[in-house]
């Protein structure tokens, strides 16, 4: 198999980390995930947006943390033993942590298991979803990370 054939196989399949936020399951493209850490003390930053929870110190690196629940107009986070901060590395935005209620599993979805969202459904929470994945009879809303964090103002 040459490199061109390998990239076509890879292009058909993507891995997602499945997380729960509220009562729903969401998929985060594993390509963007740098780390998953337990909930820790978040230092508030004055005059930041409500969904911007503050910053954490992760091995000497200051990482901004946002509440994906508040960003999607859901009730505020309730921290439990299952709550995690997913550290994302996104080229244009650098490092960012997002709070999720629980990390479930890693799934591999091929392109025929993903229904893309149509562009005319860009209102509110739906603009944060770029597709719906089907895995083991469950629907997983696939997060469009760039639209979630693009409004994030740099502190």
TrEMBL record:
InterPro entries: CheW (IPR039315), CheW-like_dom_sf (IPR036061), CheW-lke_dom (IPR002545). GO terms for biological process: chemotaxis; signal transduction. Pfam families: CheW. Residues 13-154 form the CheW-like domain. It comes from the Bacteria. GO terms for cellular component: cytosol. Signal peptide: none annotated. This is Chemotaxis protein CheW. It comes from Anaerosacchariphilus polymeriproducens. The lineage of its organism: Bacteria, Bacillati, Bacillota, Clostridia, Lachnospirales.
